[in-house]
Amino acid sequence: MVARLADLFEAPMGHFETVAAQGFVPVAVEKPGGGRIKDNRDPAPSDVVQVQGHGKKVPLHRLAAAAWQALVADARSAGVAAPLLLPVSGYRSSAHQARLFAAAVKRYGSPRAARVWVAPPGGSAHQSGRAIDFYLGGSNSSANVEALRRTPAYRWLARNATRYGFYPYPKEPWHWEYNPPGGSSSLPVQSAPRPSSRPAPSATPPIRPVQPPVAKPSGPVAEARPPEPVPPTVTLYPNIRLGGEGPARPMTGIFIPQRYRAGPRVDLILYLHGHHRGGWTPPPEVSIDSHWNAARYPHFALREKLNEASRNVILVAPTLGPKSEPGTLTGPGGLDRYLDQVMATLARQTSLWGGQTPSIGNIILAAHSGGGSAMLRLARSRQRSTAIIRECWGFDCLYGEGVSKLWAEWAAATPGARLYVHYLGPKGSTVQRSKELLAEQQRRRLTNVVVQETSAGHNHVPIRHWLQRVQGAPFLSPR
């Protein structure tokens, strides 16, 4: 059985922008790791994806597949042309390994001689799905070992493979195992070559899950940041500059949940985070990759909760400023321009749409705390995108004089859209505005406005109601 998101790897190959290896962080599987695989157990079926290998599809563990994609993208930029470094072999079941070992015994004359080249059942790293036999330009055979060691592809691997978590089996130059050191997911890859600006050859795989680079906090002390627990399956981090992010980096997070089904139209949730304060919220100098890092801030684990939902929707979250400044996002035409860049990223950095930019189906605006001001401005703006806003979710975010009346006016003018407001009571900072909105809803008989008090803490309001809102959106198709 292959995970449905294997489609990311199986789709037709096209041009894409390469990403420097220094933006990829290998995720450790074993402890201590950092060498040959010790745990040869079969992976869970949901962890197996298919990638395009040398003349055939090859199954791999999803983490090994992501690391291989990063490796081969940079190899292409360094001049290692296709089909070099495409997989010849990957995951093998124990039954398959038994057949290979029996054939090796017959070929080499004894089990002892066969073990030099083929592991017996239960003893092969290929059973983990994290071992890859690369195509190096010639036959992968015991008679061809020395010739393969002289190939440019092998020499590139010998210099660079460990940056992506791959370690060699010395007897077989084609065999490499994904087993990065334990804790390596918290460290950026060092001394990675920068890719050229030219597009990669068409045989280069078109997508890889991108691990966020580690932010460097400003100030005298750089606080250690825990590794990001990467939820299945893909998070993209394009640098879309809005102009108000500083001192954080201009970064947008685009999360494609597990079992996502691609179609010509894409439904989006655009999430606007609250103020940077430190403590319970990220400090001003970090970007969205820290905001939804569930290791540091479990109450902002929006991606993990989206995976729990059964709705086919992509989550988009820009990095806002220290006081939720949206920059150009709320300027004239800002939402349209921003979403155009998001959709172009999906077309360019994934293969789900075959290189074509999909159109937007429905938009949900969601905001927490100080992000509510930007959400209101976007909802009330006149752009082509605002016509397809179906719902707005406010998580303890009604701040500012007159905000309740403005939201009521929006709801009255757009009866086909809905507004949900969850506020912290009875002494929260948005109680007054939320009750004012409730009074407007009752006075105007606005059936598309729902205002609910919650007992969750201010920073827990989004995660408390996130799953409810995603599952309750009737226009989102199931996945």
Condensed summary:
The chain is α/β, with parallel strands linked by helices. The chain is built from 13 helices and 14 strands. Helix content is 27%, strand content 17%.
Structure description:
The longest helix has 16 residues. The chain starts with 6 loop residues before the first helix and ends in a 7-residue tail after the last helix. The protein is built from 13 helices and 14 strands. The protein has 479 residues and is an alpha/beta fold.
Shape type: elongated
In total, the number of domains comes to 2
Q: Distance between termini?
A: 17 Å
* Strand numbers in spatial order across the main sheet: 7-8-10-9-11-12-13-14
Give the helix proportion (percent range): 25-40%
The tally of strands reads 14
CATH topology of the largest domain: Rossmann fold
- Corresponding CATH architecture of the largest domain: 3-Layer(aba) Sandwich
Give the low-pLDDT segments. 1-22, 184-226
Portion in strands: 15-25%
Q: What's the order of the H and E elements?
A: HEEHEHHEHHEEEEEHHEHEHEHEHEH
Major beta sheet summary: 8 strands, mixed
List the helices and strands and how they pair.
Blueprint: H1 7-10, E1 48-52, E2 57-61, H2 62-77, E3 87-89, H3 94-108, H4 111-114, E4 131-134, H5 145-149, H6 152-160, E5 166-169, E6 172-178, E7 233-236, E8 252-257, E9 265-272, H7 288-291, H8 302-308, E10 314-318, H9 334-349, E11 359-368, H10 371-380, E12 389-395, H11 403-413, E13 418-424, H12 431-444, E14 449-454, H13 461-472
Parallel strand pairs: 9-10, 9-11, 11-12, 12-13, 13-14
Antiparallel strand pairs: 1-2, 3-4, 4-6, 5-6, 7-8, 8-10
